[in-house]
User: Which sequence fits this backbone?
């Protein structure tokens, strides 16, 4: 058990292309000893970037550097810039109550200011969460009274029609963690449907 006074600040800057249409908001990055690259979804055994490769290129290894057991970060960033896909997390500071990456051992100290984060993202259509803690934190921060189920979406009233922007939706997807009990192909299809809904695919 770790010291409860040990507050961990978010180690990454938000990745927000000016044309962001889809914004992934997770909970908080895993410990850096689990990283294979300095970016979001940095754990080599997490399938987020494999799902992205499968959905857009029909090749789950499109962004994978198998030889070095990492991901091709330059290719990922260029792709995200082109498509308008952004990343950050729902917490800026946490206490890690156990030495692992599980959300159930994260205590959120400072939630992310979501309205400030998305200010100026005039093309934003979807905020995507893939875990219960991220979804709960976002809903609490934005005073949303109910959470969508996995593979469902709902309008976020407080972020919609701001600066004459179209409605912004919260879209919940299955986790890309291999601990989440769903076949890779079904996860990829869920993500594909989200990107179709967003108008990116």
Assistant:
């Amino acid at each position: 058990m770790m010291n409860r006074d040990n507050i961990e600040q978010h180690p990454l800057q938000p990745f927000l292309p000016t044309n962001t249409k889809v914004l992934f908001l997770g909970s908080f990055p895993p410990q850096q000893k689990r990283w294979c690259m300095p970016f979001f979804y940095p754990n080599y055994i997490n399938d987020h970037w494999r799902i992205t490769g499968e959905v857009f290129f029909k090749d789950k290894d499109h962004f994978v550097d198998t030889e070095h057991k990492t991901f091709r970060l330059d290719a990922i960033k260029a792709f995200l810039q082109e498509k308008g896909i952004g990343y950050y997390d729902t917490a800026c500071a946490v206490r890690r109550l156990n030495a692992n990456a599980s959300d159930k051992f994260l205590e959120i100290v400072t939630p992310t200011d979501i309205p400030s984060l998305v200010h100026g993202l005039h093309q934003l259509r979807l905020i995507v969460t893939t875990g219960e803690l991220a979804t709960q934190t976002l809903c609490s921060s934005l005073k949303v009274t109910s959470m969508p189920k996995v593979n469902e979406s709902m309008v976020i009233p407080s972020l919609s029609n701001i600066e004459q922007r179209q409605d912004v939706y919260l879209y919940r997807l299955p986790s890309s963690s291999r601990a989440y009990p769903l076949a890779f192909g079904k996860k990829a299809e869920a993500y594909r449907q989200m990107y179709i809904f967003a108008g990116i695919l």
About this structure: The mean pLDDT is 92. Helices lie at 48-57, 73-83, 114-118, 132-141, 184-198.
